[in-house]
Automatic annotation (TrEMBL):
Polar residues bias locations: 20-29
The protein's name: Putative signal-transduction protein
Pfam families: CBS
All copies of domain CBS, residue ranges: 39-98, 107-164
Species of origin: Roseibium alexandrii (strain DSM 17067 / NCIMB 14079 / DFL-11) (Labrenzia alexandrii)
Taxon lineage: Bacteria, Pseudomonadati, Pseudomonadota, Alphaproteobacteria, Hyphomicrobiales
Length: 173
């Protein structure tokens, strides 16, 4: 007999089970909300005033590596949103004369907003239907963040990946 041999004991017959999940976690139906995205992404909101020039806006978009800016008045109240798409359209309409124009001349004034408690699916539907990629998140009259269609899709993909993992664990045991 090898020197490393140990005779079986009663403890060897007891099979311990570990559970990486419970019926509660498997049946969890937590609704994905805008607030969940803001928790992971942060609540930085880059903004400018209606009187700023498009040149100032373009510089900020480039430096911050973002696709849209919130437009607020001096009191901090939402006035509109300015996206890269807005600027490109104006560049096509007024070549060579665009960067000196004011933000208020081309910003989108009728801004669709959402709140932290809104469900992601409804926000995604609104963005898809309206054909825009950025939506300010407001709590009352205060802008508390901004979500992009990329944020929503990425969050949903992570959810699906997690659900897939849960199903695999359920099947494997």
């Amino acid at each position: 007999m090898p020197s490393s041999y140990q005779a079986p004991s009663r403890k060897d017959k007891i099979q311990e089970k570990t559970h990486s999940q419970t019926p509660v976690t498997n049946a969890s139906t937590e609704t994905a909300t805008v607030g969940k995205i803001l928790e992971s992404k942060g609540k930085d909101v880059f903004s400018l005033r209606p009187q700023n020039t498009l040149h100032e806006a373009v510089v900020q978009l480039k430096e911050k590596r973002i696709g849209a800016l919130i437009v607020k008045d001096a009191a901090g109240k939402l006035q509109g949103i300015l996206s890269e798409r807005d600027i490109v359209r104006r560049l096509a309409e007024t070549p060579g004369q665009t960067l000196s124009q004011k933000v208020e001349d081309i910003m989108t004034r009728d801004v669709k907003t959402c709140s932290p408690g809104d469900q992601l699916i409804s926000v995604l539907q609104t963005m898809t239907k309206g054909k825009f990629r950025h939506m300010p998140v407001v709590n009352g009259d205060i802008v508390v963040g901004i979500v992009t269609i990329g944020d929503v899709v990425n969050y949903r993909l992570q959810e699906l990946e997690y659900e897939s993992l849960q199903l695999k664990q359920l099947i494997v045991g």
